[in-house]
Amino acid sequence: MNKISHFPIHEATRANALERLATFIPEAGQAYTRIRNMDFGPAAHDNVSQLSPFIRHRLITELEVLEAVLAHHRFVDAEKFVYEVFWRGYFKGYLEAYPEIWQHYLTKRDQHVEALKNDDKLAFRYHTALSGHTGIDCFDAWVTELVETGYLHNHARMWFASIWIFTLRLPWELGADFTLRHFLDGDPASNTLSWRWVGGLHTKGKTYLARPSNIAEFTNGRFSPKGLATEALPLSEPPMVRSAPFKHQPLSAAPSGPTLLLLTGEDLHPESLACGAADIQHIVGWQGAAGRSCLPVSQPVLTFSDSALRDGVIRASAHFKAKHDIIGQLTTDALMQIAKVHNLKTILIPHATVGPVADQITAIAPQLAEHQIELLSLKRREDQRIWPHATKGFFEVKQNIPRILHDLSIRSK
């Protein structure tokens, strides 16, 4: 197998993402299918792409990844990897359809964080888990790996969440908050919905139980955990209300005329945006990673996000031949000042899906409108093809993948 671990995962650049993709492509077919579920430990994740931090910030897009992989492999050989890429789009689309899930998570998270101040027993169990002193060998090792590297194998993420919920019996929202604060690829949709899936909230009544034999097998015997829960009773919550059905919108929804482009850490490949007749005259960058939680976000996440933003803004500046600014806080005053200097009345932003960045954008949009500055959100065509199918389980997306690939003009080898 080609080794890709020597490419530093913390180098948050598009060039690094493209190099990782090129090196992984030969392994994305049957080799990936055969050993993708193995967690060989820190610095030994060559059996998976490790592209997720870059895709998360769209330093490289899902569309590019699919095109590159299927140009090299037949769909039947690479379908497991293709499905993993589509899971990301599915989760984003699902949270767009059920934004109440995100708001409910925030409310419960904040309640649990407040409870930590008054409930000594909860606080002790919580900090024991976060310090990696539970006595469960695999869990404690994964805490250390996550804090130090910002990354865990996907299989380890499921085991971790299962142990947190069913063995340690801690609130899932506190666990989701911990991982969102530490994952370099921390994504509000994938993170929140994956935790809910493990706990039996996403697919009602279906839970994921971490079993010692399964962990031993798929960690190649590195761990032999003791004392794990032997049953996983589903969590419960009030029904979540679906928002208005997703409507397919025109792909060329960008404005015409002089425009300010606002880039966030949600989408940092502006070169491939369908900007239409928009005349991008200035670029503003804001990454927003610190808003992932009411608790401190890890320094590796902040560093990665800052580097990714700078890489994206510099490329955008060169592509659109426009000057740029990077701001630390997203405020109406900051944007108005920049727009006023350049006499711009329209701000174009790559669509931010449900999550903390979208929350902050939604908060300032009315204030900008009061000053006759229009804030327009531009969706990518791959999202618009996937999201209408992402309102129930993944199966509907899965069965439509061939048609979606066809609509996106992606052909397999």
Structure description:
This protein is of the alpha/beta class. It has helices spanning 14-24, 30-35, 52-56, 62-72, 75-97, 99-115, 120-130, 137-149, 154-167, 172-182, 188-199, 212-218, 299-320, 332-341, 356-370, 381-386, 394-407; strands at 257-264, 278-286, 323-326, 346-350, 374-378. It folds into 3 domains: 14-96 and 386-407, Alpha Horseshoe (Serine Threonine Protein Phosphatase 5, Tetratricopeptide repeat), CATH 1.25.40; 102-218, DNA Cyclobutane Dipyrimidine Photolyase, subunit A, domain 3 (Orthogonal Bundle), CATH 1.10.579.10; 257-378, HUPs (Rossmann fold). It has a 5-stranded parallel β-sheet, sandwiched between helices. The chain is globular. The two termini are 21 Å apart.
